[in-house]
Amino acid sequence: MLFLDKTIELNDTEMTIYHYVVGNLDTVIYMRIRDLADATHVSTTTILRFCRKFGCNGFSEFRVKLQMYAQNRTKISVDMSDETTYIDFLKRTAQPEFKANIAQSAKILRDAELVLFVGIGASGIIAEYGALYFSSLFTLALHIEDPLNHPFYHLSSKISDKICLIAISVSGENEDLIKYIHQLKTQKCKIITITNSAKSTMAKLSDANIPYYINKEMYQEADITSQLPAVYTIECIAREIRTQIDREEK
Questions:
Q1: 68 and 97 share one domain
Q2: Which residue range or ranges hold the SIS domain (predicted)?
């Protein structure tokens, strides 16, 4: 909430002040306390109470912190010039370790009759693409959009060992996905994870992990780490399986 890293409780009047400050950030940092009070139709005493809730002794301190917050927002930029991250990743895909991880995942998936894809946020969109791509090249694959509302407590033991979950996560530390993986592991389902690091919790819980190791990027509070490695990895696995099947059928 503004320059705080937590949410604080505001009453209706204070919420009115908050919305005005957020909507007029560049103006408020130059206002006097009387100016803000007049603009929000409250007393200066109310403005002072509002400032104290943000951990400030008075309006002057609030205004300084607000100005620093506004400056930090404008300093954040996205670097589009550095392509070495992608080039380095693509070079690593030609290395024996990456190929071995692809081969291990393909071997597990060859025995699966149902493939499930899951991810949260941007990784969820990649998971949806993965389900479509796998269904086109290999076998039926489904995207689990909301893992918490798709439990597998009553999964039949006759099919559980024929299910493989492919979980996608940059951090590999998403609590919801970790719980979901634990749930499916108790049902003897196979787990494949695609993460940024092999040291993540999800990677350690999986039967096979394919890490891609690229720089994590943040813009303000959003994780904008590239999903290119995840997409490439999914396509590599599916194409490897399709190649194996075609080779056997000849």
A1: no
A2: 105-244
Residues 23 and 143 in one domain: no
Distance of CA 11 to the CA centre of its chain: 32
pLDDT in tens, 185-215: 888 899 999 999 999 999 999 999 999 998 8
∠ Cα 184 189 191 (to 5°): 85
**Could you give the C-alpha distances from 140 to 24, 61, 147, 153, in angstroms and in order?**
52, 60, 18, 21
Instruction: Clarify whether residues 132 and 224 are in a common domain.
Output: yes
Task: Report the relative pairing of strands 163-169 and 141-144 from DSSP bridges.
Answer: unpaired
Beta bridge partners of residue 142, listed in sequence order: 116
Does residue 3 belong to any structural domain of this protein?
A: no
Domain shared by 46 and 160, yes or no: no
Q: Is the pTM higher than 0.85?
A: no
128/73 Cα distance (integer angstroms) = 32
Query: Is residue 145 domain-shared with residue 167, that is, in the same domain?
Result: yes
Note whether 51 and 107 are same-domain residues: no
Q: Are residues 161 and 49 in the same domain?
A: no
Distances (CA, A) of 159 to 12, 96, 112, 167, 182: 54, 33, 9, 19, 17
C-beta of residue 223 within 8 angstroms of C-beta of residue 216: yes
Full residue range of the structural domain in which residue 63 is found? 12-75
pLDDT number for residue 82: 60
